[in-house]
Design goal:
Layout (H helix, E strand, L loop, with lengths): L13 H21 L7 H4 L1 H17 L11 H26 L5 H29 L2 E2 L21 H15 L1 H10 L7 E4 L4 H5 L8 E4 L9 H11 L5 E6 L2 H11 L4 H15 L4 H11 L8 H10 L2 E9 L2 E8 L7 E2 L5 E7 L5 E7 L10 H8 L15 H8 L8 H5 L4 E3 L6 H6 L2 H7 L5 E3 L2 H4 L4 H18 L1 H17 L7
Parallel strand pairs: 2-3, 3-4, 10-11
Antiparallel strand pairs: 1-7, 4-6, 5-6, 8-9
Length: 510
Amino acid sequence: MHKHQGMKFYKPKARNILIDLLMLLLSYYVVLDWFPLTTNTPFEKYSWPTLAFTLAWVLVSYLFKRYKPLKKQKYYEAIIRLLYVCEILFIFFVAIIHLLFKEFSGFVLLSITLGALIVNYILISLYFAYRFAVEYREVEFTAPEERINAHPRPVNQIDEESYNQLCNTIGSHSGKNVLDFLKKEFDLSSGNTLVFISNDPENLQMIPNYQYSTMIQLERLNNMRAVNRKFRIINEKLPDNGLFVCCFKSKSTRKKEILNSYFKGLNYVVYSFYYIYKRVMPKIFFTRKFYYFISGDKDRVFSKTEVLGRLYCCGFKVVKEKKIGNLTYIISERIKQPEPNQNTFYGPLIRLRRLGKDGKPFKVYKMRTMHPFSEYLQGYIFERHNLKEGGKFNKDFRVTTTGSIMRKYWLDELPMLINLFKAEMKIVGVRPLSAHFYSLYSKELQQKRNKFKPGLLPPFYADMPKTLEQIEQSEMKYLLECEKNGTFLTDFKYFFMILNNILFKKARSG
């Protein structure tokens, strides 16, 4: 006998029902109080119909599982359920309830239903915007097989006819300057060098591992999706210390092209629309699919930071950069296995892994001020630019224009109040550091830092040190005073010192 599969009942979240009712009451209030109706007493006239509508709303919402925890639902799933509820209720009330309550006009019913739909849609979207911003979900990543004898296979030079044909292909596709650049950097006549145009990662899967010591892609990255997947495949195919060349048109180059193509005033209007379409829509979770549908994955916009960060994330080290025409060419070296990077949408709100009390890692909430994949470039920036006054990276191109303004006025640090409420941080204390910055500190200072929670207002703003050594001295002085006089008194003293420097000496964040 087959067991009857009836409807599966579930225990609804009381909080979800309460919030849903509040949103519905808001719709009632707006329609009955603000809309021009034919009665002077709308709340009395529509009391019974709205009560019936409310009961029906809760019942149908329950049946469509709208009261399940949102964290167990997908965004589009939650929106579809909301649409079904609104559609069914509107049809049901027009067909039946409207016959019983003659005074309940179709206009009022439609307005209430649309109001409930809009308010709930906004609420659901805000929830998922926050959730996708701070939930770092690991990408499914299968560790590659052990690399045994990861050395290029011995091959012969290609014949003269094949070499000339290869040079003609490069020249016709990318131009003479690119051909000269590649000739200077690589031996194109070597059988260990592969030059290809295709953007399809699957074509690379057919290549035997370690057959080529150099792989050169002529087509720009802007015209492909799944960039990281392709980089990972190339990492797998290259031998140890193999070289990979790619190119892209940077965001700054595209901006200059647009601004120079129109007269002053109109050029910034055009660029604003372009920026929203190309930079904002792909980063917002509920417009991403629409963007990729209409764009066809063509002419994507990449910042230099994003391309370099993707390479480092996928196990490469940048060896050389060269601007040729309107494209930037990157020569990178395969140095390690790819990292299992985190699948995030790089929205405005982020969580950064930092070290707290007892050296335990925790996530710090901040507003995004850097380009995507910036987190993989700390070592790269430090090697090339070192630190400037205040302990920040010198010439840090990872910071966006908006981000630099936010940093100047601490707007990016406002979400850290969440960490304060979660008791992971306190008001005054040493900065929560990344593992890279933490490694730059002396062992003694590291041990001192581990004894206390990090803070929103670091002692940096009390002493205003300029070098890394002075920053260490400032923090050590603060921590020793905490040990001697207690955390409360020390923080109380430093709070007013910091406030004085910020308000009257115009101390600013870097």
